[in-house]
């Protein structure tokens, strides 16, 4: 029997890039995947259509009211992957309050809304759940020009550890995965080829990561085999954060 047979998995920002790979991996484990998207409907619907028993659902996860409505429509969330995110890279002195606040709301506050809704939707009652938050090695190391992004991703790590402590007794695990450089629409918009080259020089494995490699780690943490792992941050970065 597949590891997540009969379980419902919600992947925020699940239509493309790392989110798409995660959606595919969880579907391969037998989960009924809900591919959440904010604006790119075509990508989300294409991903959902390629998977068995998957659906696409629009909601801005930075808006608690939209999250509540989405989870109510889904019914129950057994597996939650908080993958939705954005970047607004600028040096601090060039960063506006909106650049800061919008990024924090999208990359951090969204996890508060989705995690609360998922736990209340049935995880506590079922005494089983898997939550994985996609953070970044930038949240562990910091990075010039990304103080808002680093703050949000570091906050996500603290949030992960707190939720793990709060709900471990209910057999709900909460972990974080911190990718290094993976070529996606998001990273290509924020990094030049020169920046990528410099990063790869510092990466012991000397290459880019792939979305599938990140997804494989997420899938393991969502599996029955990972039931004794919680509150952890796993860097999938080729050794960059060493």
What would you call the structural class?
A: alpha/beta
Shape: globular
Rounded mean pLDDT score = 95
Question: Could you give the distance between the termini?
Answer: 38 Å
Assembly type of the chains comes to single chain
Please tally the helical runs, counting DSSP H or I stretches of 4 or more residues: 9
Strand content: 5-15%
How many strand units?
A: 7
Question: For the CA atoms, what is the radius of gyration?
Answer: 17 Å
Largest sheet: 7 strands, parallel
Which regions contain 5 or more consecutive residues with pLDDT less than 50?
A: none
The residue fraction in helices comes out at 40-55%
Secondary-structure element order, N to C: EHEHEHEHEHHEHHHE
* Order of neighbouring strands in the sheet with most strands: 3-2-1-4-5-6-7
Provide a descriptive summary of the structure in words.
- Helix 1 packs across helix 9 (211-222), helix 3 packs parallel to helix 4 (97-126) and helix 4 runs parallel beside helix 6 (147-167).
- Strand 2, helix 2 and strand 3 (55-58) form a beta-alpha-beta unit.
- Helices cover 47% and strands 15% of the residues.
- It has helices spanning 17-28, 41-49, 64-74, 97-126, 138-141, 147-167, 185-190, 193-201, 211-222, and strands at 8-11, 32-37, 55-58, 79-82, 129-134, 172-179, 233-236.
- It has nine helices and seven strands.
- The longest helix is centred in the middle third of the chain and has 30 residues, at 97-126.
- It is globular, with a radius of gyration of 17 Å.
- By secondary structure, it is of the alpha/beta class.
- 46% of the residues are buried.
- The mean pLDDT is 95.
- The N and C termini lie far apart (38 Å).
- The protein has a seven-stranded parallel beta sheet with strand order 3-2-1-4-5-6-7, with helices on both faces.
């Amino acid at each position: 029997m597949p590891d997540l047979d009969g379980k419902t998995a919600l992947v925020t920002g699940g239509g493309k890039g790392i989110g798409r790979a995660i959606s595919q991996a969880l579907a391969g484990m037998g989960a009924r995947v809900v591919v959440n998207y904010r604006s790119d409907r075509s990508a989300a619907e294409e991903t959902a259509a390629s998977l068995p028993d998957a659906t696409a659902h629009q909601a801005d996860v930075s808006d608690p009211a939209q999250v509540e409505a989405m989870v109510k429509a889904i019914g129950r969330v057994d597996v939650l992957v908080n993958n939705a995110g954005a970047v607004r890279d600028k040096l601090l002195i060039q960063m506006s309050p909106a650049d800061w606040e919008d990024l924090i709301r999208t990359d951090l506050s969204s996890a508060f809304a989705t995690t609360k809704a998922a736990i209340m939707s049935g995880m506590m009652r079922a005494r089983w759940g898997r939550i994985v938050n996609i953070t970044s090695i930038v949240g562990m190391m910091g990075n010039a020009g990304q103080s808002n992004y680093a703050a949000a991703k570091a906050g996500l790590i603290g949030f992960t550890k707190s939720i793990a402590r709060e709900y471990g007794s209910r057999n709900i695990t909460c972990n974080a995965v911190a990718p290094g450089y993976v070529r996606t629409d998001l990273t290509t918009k924020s990094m030049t080829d020169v920046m990528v080259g410099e990063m790869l020089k510092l990466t012991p494995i000397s290459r880019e990561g792939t979305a599938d490699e990140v997804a494989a780690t997420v899938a393991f943490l969502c599996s029955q085999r990972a039931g004794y792992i919680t509150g952890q941050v796993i860097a999938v970065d080729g050794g960059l954060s060493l």
